[in-house]
Amino acid sequence: MTITIYHNPACGTSRNTLAMIRQSGEEPEIVEYLKTPPSRDKLIALIAALGMTPRALLREKGTPYAALDLANPKWSDDELIDFMMAHPILINRPIVVSPKGVKLCRPSEAVLDLLAVADIGRFVKEDGEVVPPRTPGARAG
Predict the structure, then answer these.
(1) Which of 5, 11, 46, 110 is catalytic?
(2) Known catalytic residue: 11?
């Protein structure tokens, strides 16, 4: 199974998501999107696959969101994508792509729905939160 994670190694949620993928036995393709941003067409395709709007994918915390006045409804979807292309830190993360679908994995355990082996056993996040083992057929909320 091929899995791709759009990853920011400075983000705890992204690191936890990557660790969960690896704990499932998969080694994903890792795209450090701050170093290698997706093309405009790829970003548009990801947004469509996520079933989100560009505005819904914007990250506010730790970004130029406020300085760029991105809360202002005057910005069109195309303009918001332009901002994400100019400032990739505005793209919320981690985005995971697998044969089972595409998700913004916030919280990180959302990735379990995308894995071939969702029962990864007990997992402890960096902050100490325990993600209990999955029972067969269970889905993350």
Answers:
(1) 11
(2) yes
